Amino acid sequence: MSALRRAFRGISLWSREAEASVLPQCKALGVGFVAYSPLGRGFLTGRFQHEPVPGKDDFRRTLPRFQPENLAINYSLVDLIKALAVSKNCKPSQIALAWLLAQGENIVPIPGTCNLSHLSENTGALDVQLSCAELKALRAAVSSIPVAGERYTPEGMKGVGV
Fold it and tell me: What is the mean pLDDT of residues 85-102?
């Protein structure tokens, strides 16, 4: 499978598989990269620390990363993002999006939202500047945190070409 096909997996602080092969290829070819689910289906906003399991009608309930045993492990990533957000006087979602925007001009994140306040919060990421030192520290810290659970069920993974 080509690396560009794998690009459909998206990229975020929670899913960085495209970083090593796809993003450099896109940059070299002058191709844009549309990053879907840059907030990890809302997980990187910190929301699920207050609502530990998505509601019974929420599709995330079926996703492996949102299973209670995996959420408990994955919270350490959100804690890291929240700590940086506090120091930058912004929201965790803005840190996650600012990190993504700092990865290159050819990357366009598409965070989904049904809420105007979340839309406003997301666009506020444009005002968050992460220094080179902050980006380096964030990358090192995130690299040391294991992610528990696949992004999708085995059947869902077939749909993203994995």
Answer: 96
